[in-house]
């Protein structure tokens, strides 16, 4: 069957009130355009509403991708960063909306970075920059961003990502551990929770994918310590000479 027909059927099901996870014309139009079968090695199955596994990462189901994109609310010309690019499908949808030159993506897995670059090029979005980075650090060279999408769960919004937002920018991410919610975070750190979800935890450099608790707490421990240090006042900041 013609992939374009399969894409239309997929998006029609996402727009239908029974799911209702895609509502905007921008997201619906982009998902009708991006050839998902380039990113999933199953031309017909690529348009089924289910996730796939590829190179140790989960390719999001179309309905999950739609929920994230609707929460992100990207606009043409927005500067966008995707953290956890995976195979590149969600990044391609964002490139279709915002424009490929306005979209950057990072992933901690170098093999996935190469995969995403190849897929994006084949799908017609070669302008998108994809780099191998620790996602918690973002991509400060191209900041600030109007929109940041984090496709992995964390206990709290990474400070570096929030700091790389424009004044009216938004970060969309799965927030939580065993109980997660798709959340919108603004540059002031205010959080709006939109609904439950289930994502793998965000990994940091040097950690193993199967050490779930460590992956979730290593960055937070460091950031909480830094915040605590910044909050100290008075004699705690002064050098005391006991001699």
UniProtKB/TrEMBL annotation:
GO CC terms, sorted: cytoplasm
Domain of life (superkingdom): Archaea
Gene Ontology BP, a term: methylation
Main location: cytoplasm
Family: Belongs to the methyltransferase superfamily. L-isoaspartyl/D-aspartyl protein methyltransferase family.
Highest classification ranks of the organism: Archaea, Methanobacteriati, Methanobacteriota, Stenosarchaea group, Halobacteria
Name assigned to this protein: protein-L-isoaspartate(D-aspartate) O-methyltransferase
Any one Pfam family match given in the protein's UniProt record, by short name: PCMT
Localization annotation: Cytoplasm
Keywords, ordered alphabetically: Cytoplasm, Methyltransferase, S-adenosyl-L-methionine, Transferase
Biological source species: Halovenus carboxidivorans
Catalytic activity annotation: [protein]-L-isoaspartate + S-adenosyl-L-methionine = [protein]-L-isoaspartate alpha-methyl ester + S-adenosyl-L-homocysteine
Annotated EC: 2.1.1.77
Record flagged with keyword Methyltransferase: yes
GO molecular function (one): protein-L-isoaspartate (D-aspartate) O-methyltransferase activity
Function: Catalyzes the methyl esterification of L-isoaspartyl residues in peptides and proteins that result from spontaneous decomposition of normal L-aspartyl and L-asparaginyl residues. It plays a role in the repair and/or degradation of damaged proteins.
Entry annotated with the keyword Methyltransferase: yes
